């Protein structure tokens, strides 16, 4: 994906115009590195969009390419939403969902990330969060307040039974994106199990309100992608108190994953 131009020179003029507007909108609002925006699947997605055909195959292909290239899930989905904003059309849930599923598949194909990130959500693994908890407990040694007084976990449970593998993957990608949107940098988070996620948060923030926002964003993103029936309803989001030791906290992560 190393192309700085907006599209191929032989694309139909109206398709090239749409690609130009899409690229300009994405670079202005969400895309981080201009030179890696273009991929041939961009053309296929715009052509399907322009001709009124199903965008599923092209969207899946573009998502897979973004995942393989190491582009984040949020950036990938925000980029595709820029296509719809630049043409003043409402987002197509089928296209957004296909991009997410493709991204999961592309990211899963990158072996270097397998030990660090959950391929479905794009979030770090439970082992990663356990290590961040170890650091948190270590930093609290000798402090006036213990970890249970300064930190907590915000837990999200959307698990339901009977989903197909790629439906579970799309659901995980949706929740992962929502957590990144709500918490951003500086909040260690992880996928604990299929449908169960946790975020390490300081108690000096308004955690109950943040948990409510988390539920709202998870459900909004699921509705955007047509995944409402693949989430536990209502979505369970709660604040979990941390125990006094790291060993007990690691055991807590294991229990939450069951």
Short descriptors:
258 residues, alpha+beta, Alpha-Beta Plaits, 2 domains
Briefly summarize what is shown.
By secondary structure, the chain is an alpha+beta fold. 53% of the residues lie in helices and 10% in strands. The protein has ten helices and four strands; from the N terminus they run αααααααβαββαβα.
Give a topology summary.
Layout: H1 13-29, H2 40-51, H3 56-68, H4 73-86, H5 93-108, H6 126-139, H7 147-150, E1 151-157, H8 165-183, E2 189-193, E3 196-202, H9 207-224, E4 236-241, H10 246-256
Antiparallel strand pairs: 1-3, 1-4, 2-3
Helix pairs in contact: 1-2, 1-4, 2-3, 3-5, 4-5, 5-8, 6-10, 8-9
Structure description:
The chain is an alpha+beta fold and 258 residues long. It is built from ten helices and four strands. Strands 2-3-1-4 form a four-stranded antiparallel beta sheet, with helices on both faces. Helix 8 packs across helix 9 (207-224). The longest helix has 19 residues, at 165-183.
CATH topology of the largest domain: Alpha-Beta Plaits
* CATH class (first level) name of the largest domain: Alpha Beta
The helix tally amounts to: 10
Oligomer: single chain
Class from helix and strand fractions: alpha+beta
Order of strands across the biggest sheet?
2-3-1-4
Compute the average pLDDT. Answer: 84
Task: Encode the helix/strand succession as letters.
Answer: HHHHHHHEHEEHEH
User: What is the assigned CATH homologous superfamily of the largest domain?
Assistant: Reverse transcriptase/Diguanylate cyclase domain
